[in-house]
UniProtKB/TrEMBL annotation:
Originating organism: Sphaerochaeta halotolerans
All copies of domain HTH araC/xylS-type, residue ranges: 16-114
InterPro entries named in the record: Homeodomain-like_sf, HTH_AraC, HTH_AraC-typ_CS
GO molecular function, one term: sequence-specific DNA binding
Region (Disordered): 124-147
Domain of life according to the entry: Bacteria
Signal peptide, first to last residue: none
UniProt name for this protein: AraC family transcriptional regulator
Keywords: DNA-binding, Transcription, Transcription regulation
Record carries keyword Flavoprotein: no
Length: 147
């Protein structure tokens, strides 16, 4: 059986540098070939080492960065979803919806509605008038239980 390949410190540092670059430039087009060229390595080598070090492929990693950004924007801003899509680096709204659905098991609009409910619930829970023994069970109810 072949011994499992392990990254060496040089490789770890190079991939760390590349992932840092990805985190700060996720809203740009970041094709693997251009990133490899920027960091003076071959696309094949980058792809192989990236998977070895991170445990995931380059494109998957980039999509996860973009989806996390979109989730934060959906949760903490009132920006239109189309704008969030563009600011998250997705080339099209249809790709954004497809990838978001793949990672989050719901559409961006459903995610936003769900987080709106969660935010309202947290606000009600932090209101001292609502934190009594009589109202606490009602506050903790799901929307379906509330009627």
């Amino acid at each position: 059986m072949a011994q499992e390949e392990k990254p060496i410190p040089e490789q770890l540092q190079k991939i760390y540098t590349i992932t840092s670059y990805m985190h700060t430039h996720f809203d740009d087009k970041l094709p693997l070939s251009e990133v490899a060229e920027k960091f003076a390595i071959s696309p094949y080598y980058l792809s192989r080492q990236f998977k070895l070090v991170t445990g995931t492929g380059y494109v998957t990693y980039l999509q996860m960065i973009r989806i996390r950004h979109a989730q934060n924007e959906l949760l903490y801003s009132k920006k239109p979803i189309q704008q969030i899509c563009e600011e998250s680096g997705f080339p099209s709204f249809s790709q954004f919806n497809r990838v978001f659905q793949q990672y989050c098991a719901m559409s961006p609009s459903a995610f936003r509605k769900d987080t709106d409910h969660q935010s309202q619930l947290l606000l009600r829970r932090s209101d001292p008038e609502h934190n009594t023994k009589a109202t606490l069970p009602r506050i903790l109810q799901t929307p379906e239980e509330q009627g």
